[in-house]
């Protein structure tokens, strides 16, 4: 497992205030999407004190996106995005009810099936938009509107989990959650407590390998070897060139530190970031493609934005003076 993890060309796909359980419940989407479009997608999630980051293999994801786009064009982009909305509606109904609704095996499996359908379409919808040719740009609006329609589903999933009356539920694995809901079985409390600092999961060929603190530290130390740089590259989401001081926001609890005109550097944004983005002069994210929240909101607010840098939050520090060239997708550290 260790060798396989190190041999992957990981890119951060999303990051946010999501519990480990929410991530583990949704992770089947990558295997399911790969199964549908006959393409493998490995995934890695690391959760630290309520902030989860998901990494996907860059090469596998690119191959998947290209294959999926071809098939979606064959079946019809409008049909695909209409189905995506339908699955989102089905999931919203479940997530806005009480967890008591899934207190038996039949209802739990129904919930699991709906979540898998929705999340596999979500990852597919988001990724294919990154592979549109000039000729295919006419389809972008369909993918973008479907993405906006379904945006709050994972926030609702987190809220749904929080309705469960058990304090440590957020650190459960998917299997432990099912056992708790269906059989009221609680896992060993010492095992759960050991996950409070950090916990992770690596999924390869639909096989789960859970990662403790030591394994996560080893992976992160391996990544840090290539982080020394004075220039960061990513994808332009909205064009423009601006210089300013950086403010790194990983957790929204730090939002009051953000000052008007600073450059927002974060793993990924969501609708709760909008008050900060209103004050920001530019946006830089580790994760994201053309349909990530940061890209959409940057286009709406007309703010320079570079997404998918992978390492911005690890390299840049509060107060760094940088030039954001969102025409070329380059962030230069000036001082």
Could you provide a short overview of the structure?
The chain is of the alpha+beta class.
List the helices and strands and how they pair.
Elements: H1 2-6, E1 10-16, H2 20-26, H3 28-36, E2 43-48, E3 51-57, H4 58-75, H5 77-95, H6 105-128, H7 140-149, H8 153-162, H9 174-183, H10 189-193, E4 199-204, E5 207-211, H11 213-223, E6 231-233, E7 235-238, E8 241-248, E9 263-266, H12 274-279, E10 282-285, H13 293-301, E11 305-307, H14 312-315, E12 321-325, E13 330-333
Parallel strand pairs: 8-9, 9-10, 10-11
Antiparallel strand pairs: 1-3, 2-3, 2-4, 4-5, 6-13, 7-11, 8-12, 12-13
Helix pairs in contact: 3-6, 5-6, 5-7, 5-8, 6-7
Structure description:
The chain is α+β, with helices and mostly antiparallel strands. It has two domains: 2-220, no CATH class; 230-333, Phosphohistidine domain (Glucose Oxidase, domain 1, 3-Layer(bba) Sandwich). It contains 14 helices and 13 strands. It has helices spanning 2-6, 20-26, 28-36, 58-75, 77-95, 105-128, 140-149, 153-162, 174-183, 189-193, 213-223, 274-279, 293-301, 312-315, and strands spanning 10-16, 43-48, 51-57, 199-204, 207-211, 231-233, 235-238, 241-248, 263-266, 282-285, 305-307, 321-325, 330-333. The strands form two sheets. The chain has an eight-stranded mixed beta sheet. A five-stranded antiparallel beta sheet has the order 1-3-2-4-5. β4 and β5 (207-211) form a beta hairpin. The longest helix has 24 residues, at 105-128.
């Amino acid at each position: 497992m260790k060798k396989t993890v190190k041999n992957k060309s990981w890119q951060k796909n999303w990051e946010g205030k999501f519990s480990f359980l929410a991530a583990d419940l949704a992770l089947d989407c990558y295997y399911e999407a790969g199964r549908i479009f006959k393409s493998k997608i490995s995934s890695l999630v690391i959760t630290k004190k309520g902030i989860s980051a998901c990494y996907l293999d860059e090469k596998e994801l690119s191959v998947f996106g290209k294959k999926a786009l071809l098939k979606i064009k064959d079946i019809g982009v409008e049909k695909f995005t209409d189905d995506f909305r339908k699955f989102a509606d089905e999931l919203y109904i479940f997530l806005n009810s009480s967890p008591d609704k899934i207190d038996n095996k039949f209802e739990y499996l129904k919930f699991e099936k709906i979540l898998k359908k929705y999340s596999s379409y979500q990852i597919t919808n988001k990724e294919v938009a990154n592979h549109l040719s000039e000729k295919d740009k006419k389809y972008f609006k369909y993918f973008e509107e479907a993405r906006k329609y379904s945006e709050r589903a994972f926030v609702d999933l987190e809220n749904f989990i929080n309705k469960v009356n058990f304090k440590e539920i957020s650190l459960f694995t998917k299997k432990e959650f099912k056992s708790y809901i269906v059989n009221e079985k609680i896992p060993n409390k010492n095992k759960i407590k050991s996950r409070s600092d950090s916990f992770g999961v690596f999924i390869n060929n639909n096989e789960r390998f859970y990662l403790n603190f030591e394994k996560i530290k080893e992976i992160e130390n391996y990544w840090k070897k290539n982080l020394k740089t004075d220039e960061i590259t990513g994808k332009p989401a909205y064009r423009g060139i601006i210089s300013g001081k950086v403010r790194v926001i990983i957790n929204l609890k730090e939002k009051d530190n953000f000052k008007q005109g600073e450059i927002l550097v974060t793993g990924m944004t969501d609708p709760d970031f909008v008050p900060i983005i209103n004050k920001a002069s530019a946006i830089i994210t580790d994760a994201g493609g053309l349909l990530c929240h940061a890209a959409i909101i940057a286009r709406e607010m007309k703010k320079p934005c570079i997404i998918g840098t992978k390492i911005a939050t690890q390299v840049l520090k509060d107060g760094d003076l940088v030039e954001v060239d969102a025409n070329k997708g380059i962030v230069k550290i000036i001082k």
